[in-house]
Write a structure and sequence with these properties.
three-stranded mixed sheet, 6 strands, 169 residues, alpha/beta
């Protein structure tokens, strides 16, 4: 089994993530489900490290009719890594910026940024507004990215588009 195009993982690390172990003395039984699970596992690991554009192609399969051995070659295109740079808040009157910042799990610059971080931030802000009685808050998140770099510094702008507090009477 070959894994071509990985820069952040060694071949052995990639195979371990993919749960495809090979040694010279073992015979590896592969089927379509195992191959797809291996691709999904590696894709997920890259995503957790901030690689949003990761592409892993279904492997090329080469068979040696003389020896009966099969070689699988996975091609990986990592794309660029997104890293957290800065968080901006606009239009939030009911919650202070420092309280909003506390809802975001990344505290330092240049840490891997995932879609999960952004989704969780949006949910946490909406939940906090609901807790304060603002049931119809609309939070808009914009990403400002400088794509010229290998590691893309990403600013996150969070805007309160509309907050309506229900008054208790």
């Amino acid at each position: 089994v070959h894994v071509d195009g990985t820069n952040i993982f060694s071949r052995d690390e990639a195979l371990k993530i993919m749960d495809v172990f090979t040694t010279n003395s073992s015979v590896l039984q592969l089927n379509d489900e195992i191959i797809r699970n291996a691709i999904d596992s590696l894709h997920q690991e890259y995503s957790q490290r901030g690689y949003w554009d990761i592409k892993i192609l279904y492997p090329q399969i080469k068979k040696n009719s003389r020896t009966g051995e099969t070689t699988l070659s996975f091609k990986v295109n990592e794309g660029k890594q997104r890293v957290f740079n800065q968080l901006y808040f606009r239009g939030h009157r009911a919650i202070s910026d420092s309280n909003l910042e506390a809802l975001f799990p990344i505290k330092k610059k240049n840490r891997a940024l995932t879609w999960g971080h952004i989704f969780d931030l949006q949910q946490a802000i909406q939940d906090e507004y609901k807790r304060l009685g603002y049931l119809y808050t609309k939070v808009k998140i914009d990403l400002i990215q400088n794509r010229r770099f290998r590691r893309i510094p990403t600013n996150i702008s969070v805007t309160d588009r509309k907050s309506t507090r229900l008054n208790s009477s």
